[in-house]
Specification:
The chain is α/β, with parallel strands linked by helices and 304 residues long. Helix content is 39%, strand content 17%. The chain is globular, with a radius of gyration of 19 Å.
């Protein structure tokens, strides 16, 4: 599979490049990307939302569009919310425009989205057939997916990968939590009753590759482990993994004061399950939370 990847230097993208044994990548800094990603990488300059360089899709079978402004990096000011939305909508629109202009179009576009599309739904069991929810992040995901689905009108199979909480020690939510839990200061967020869909980073990459290689998958794909957990149970599991207590909660009010509207990402509840992945035969490498955390915590840093 010859692939074009945006967001290739990020937590997921870099691992996807390695899993593919190389790829063509669209990045802001090609030299830095080549140094980080190693051999087998053809790096082209691109700022999200700008026109994709001519010829970028030549010979490409699959496009993985992962680029977008980080969501959980501080308060959502009006300016930041605009960047979060525009980076996804305009970036995806530019990728679809490049597909439209290509002499030979790729067969599949795997476009990132997030389980945040469901909004906060309490104990409701959610899968790819569930309707979109309410809130800023749900609106962003809905518009993001709509832009991606425009490629279907061009004869390209489109998968919108609704990514859950990605477990990796060198980034994402777990990367931020680990130092706190290792110091014995961790615990549940808010009341702890909210559902948290999660996936080991190896399965995130595995599911993206499965999406690209499986013609039966079109439209939404929940990228999460088979069993979501309540946030308090995740905190207990992480405390066990690092052999520390994990009883110090972070009150919801403190999060709302610190992060404002962005705290909805931490306090929201999505009981999402990967129905499509299971129906199409994906075999999870790390379906059990305790095993997934142990694998990550015990894995030597050089292998991340």
């Amino acid at each position: 599979m010859r692939a074009l990847i945006t967001g290739a230097t990020g937590l997921i993208g870099a691992r996807l490049v390695r899993a593919l044994g190389g790829a063509r990548v669209l990045v802001r800094s090609p030299d830095a990307a080549r140094r980080r990603l190693g051999p087998g990488v053809e790096a082209l300059p691109w700022d999200t939302g700008r026109e994709v360089p001519a010829g970028a899709l030549d010979g490409v079978d699959a496009v993985f569009h992962l680029a977008g402004e980080p969501v959980a990096e501080g308060r959502w000011t009006d300016r930041r919310k605009a960047r979060i939305l525009e980076s996804r909508v305009e970036g995806t629109r530019a990728v679809v425009a490049a597909i439209r202009a290509a002499d030979r179009r790729p067969t599949v576009l795997v476009n990132a989205s997030a389980v945040g599309v469901y909004g906060s739904r309490g104990d409701e069991l959610l899968d790819e057939s569930s309707a979109a929810g309410d809130g800023f992040l749900a609106d962003v995901c809905r518009l993001w997916e709509r832009e991606a689905m425009a490629a279907a009108d061009l004869g390209v199979r489109v998968v919108t990968a609704r990514i859950s909480v990605v477990l990796a020690t060198d980034g994402g939510a777990l990367g931020k939590m680990l130092p706190i839990f290792r110091a014995g200061l961790g615990g549940p967020i808010g009341c702890g009753a909210q559902w948290m869909p999660w996936a080991h980073v190896d399965d995130v990459v595995g599911l993206l590759l499965h999406a690209a290689a499986t013609p039966a998958i079109t439209g939404p794909l929940d990228v999460c482990a088979p069993d979501p957990v309540r946030q308090r149970d995740f905190a207990r599991a992480l405390a066990r993994a690092v052999h520390r207590p994990g009883f110090l909660p972070t009150p919801a009010l403190a999060l709302r004061v610190a992060f404002g509207e962005m705290s909805s990402v931490l306090l929201g509840s999505q009981r999402a399950i990967p129905r499509i992945a299971r129906e199409t035969g994906y075999r999870f490498q790390h379906p059990d939370l305790d095993e997934a955390l142990a694998d990550l915590v015990d894995r030597p840093p050089a292998s991340h």
